[in-house]
Amino acid sequence: MKTKVLLGAVVAAGMSLCGAIEAQGQVKLIAKGQLTESSAGLFADLSGLDYNLENGAPANLLGGLGSALTWGYGDTFLALPDRGPNAVPFDSLVDDTVSYVPRFHTIKMSLQPSSVGLPFTLTPTLEKTTLLFSHAPLT
Description:
Elements: H1 2-22, E1 37-38, E2 41-42, E3 69-73, E4 76-79, E5 103-113, E6 120-131
Antiparallel strand pairs: 1-2, 3-4, 4-5, 5-6
């Protein structure tokens, strides 16, 4: 019995040592890209919204990306933008929060080898914008 406990402790110690070694890996930047336009135009998403928000920003403003990004499949990623544009003060009683319709974007990330600078070139393309709302009650 003592041999099994000792063997278990040795295995556990060895596994934790391996984990500690792996945790010291270095992060390396391999590519950079920018997503500033879509087929709808410069800084425009594909929501189809064609009005301005309370602070004057367009309702289809493409931005606030990066804090919620996840891999979907292949070279496709899903991006959830922040709560909407509130950089322009218009009503401090509501924390300058506008009636921004929540949405997520489907983005294709094309990674190609590069001969200069970083090892790869990243080209993000906005494929789709999905609004998270319904005209009908969600009950």
